Amino acid sequence: MNWLAIGATLMALAVGLGAFGAHGLADRVSPKDLEIWRTGAHYHMIHALALVALSASGRAADTQPASWLLLAGIVIFSGSLYLLVLTQQRWLGAITPIGGLAFIAAWIVVAARAAQGGS
What we know:
Elements: H1 3-24, H2 31-56, H3 60-87, H4 96-115
């Protein structure tokens, strides 16, 4: 997998979705929903940037599991929040923590690999 390309693409998408929330949704959704959107975009951007950083580390084999978990977290955590706001299907909020667990697991994998002598 080309994690640098995936991470960079996800960063561009995060910027675009953040701008859409700020400019396209501001007058269309409640302040609470706008904050939910911002949370999704914020976590999306942080973890897409983490994918870029991991890919630049030069340790592709060591970072592959964490990269998959970060991707899953972005799709599930941020994706469920975006869909919740756009569709008003509040049950999607029950899915969001699964993405959060994927983020946590990714960071645990990164920490474990680093503790084993990886950089």
